[in-house]
Amino acid sequence: MGKYDPFPTVNLPDRQWPGKTLTKAPRWLTSDLRAGNQALHMVPEYDFTRRLIDTGAVFEDVWLQVLLPRQGMALSRTIEAVKGANRVILNFHLATPHYYHPAVDVSQPGRKIVDFAVGTTRLIRTFTKDSQKPEINKTNWALELTVENFQDTNLPFTITICEAVKATWQPTPSNKIIFNLPSTVERTMPNIFADQIELFWGSITEREKVCVSVHTHNDRVCTVAAAKMTQLAGADRVEGCLYGNGDRAGSVDLGTLALKLYSQGVQPGVNLGSLDDVVAQVEELMQIPVHRRAPYSGRNVSNSYTETQHEAIYKGYQFLGQDQSQPRSKHQGQEPEWKIPYIPMDPTDIGRHDEHIIRVNRHSSTIHHVKQILHIDMPHKMQHEFISIVKDHATKRGFEVPPDSIRHLFQKEVYE
């Protein structure tokens, strides 16, 4: 063996996921608030959670998810932090790969790890489902077991642990147990991870009582592909962060996943119709800027600076019978299929304007764009003369020429 070896493949000759298509959105879990200190038995986190619940800030159909410590007193304090909420998911982690045993407090392999998982589940039941306290019984409790570094865990052993926990918790089809199978540190190719998920999904019993969840990390820059492929393989739920925040290289970007579904005709179940407002709020709260080239959400992802692309975009709008400056026309109540070159999704669907697509600099300026900005149809000779003026101006500035500057140039150089 070398220092770094290829990850072994999965023996799954009859794999089904490559031939499937995503037709519905997964359950979403945003873990943005989980970064940093995750202990709700600490005063700031406890008070923050109580404020969310006591002020009614949590909608009735939203599940609050919290991480559980292993110690009894700390676990009890965590339950106190979320009591009174309508729906709560209690998530406890179990590190199972062999290389964790010397370093983490699950050092006893095999049967003792299973016994530990079962004992923890019984303790959680004592504080929740089996509690005699009326204020505890008001909450709908669900359990999530996260098999830490699932990719590196022996699959039969994973199944043994999950079956034992499931039998102890006793889920129902209406309140399923969640088995979260993360790529805690991304080590496999996305297709291998999908094979692992399909194999797990085909091995676990009482599937009607189980929700398979994934939490993909971006250590090897495949997090979006891994999340999509594992959904094809049977994952019902995806955990992640907005705009790829999270530990180390970040978790999967839930916004990108949602808009990829939307751009393929699948309703994601989240409203991103004012995407710039979402970006601004995330940047303010997280104090981390969203990159201008971030898929879908970045400020420049729909911008084109190339003249040949400008021509193709303009002709695409003509083909659809659309005017960039006008609201979308519909035929029998539906908009035509979106087939605009270089623009994978209609910018107006996420609250952006078409006039920001085509950007003018010294290398690019089309009369179509200028006409759209000025709302006039100039004679042919005047068109080319004015385009030269715009390009000269861009060369002197060294930057792009925004629409207001084009209007000013026309007023100054042509109209006057």
TrEMBL record:
Residues 103-279 form the Pyruvate carboxyltransferase domain. One of its GO terms (biological process) is L-leucine biosynthetic process. InterPro entries: Aldolase_TIM (IPR013785), LeuA-like_post-cat (IPR054692), PYR_CT (IPR000891). PANTHER family: 2-ISOPROPYLMALATE SYNTHASE, PTHR46911. It holds the Pfam family HMGL-like. Residues 323-342 are annotated as: Disordered. Its EC number is 2.3.3.13. GO terms for cellular component: mitochondrion. This is 2-isopropylmalate synthase. Residues 311-364 form the 2-isopropylmalate synthase-like post-catalytic domain. One of its GO terms (molecular function) is 2-isopropylmalate synthase activity.
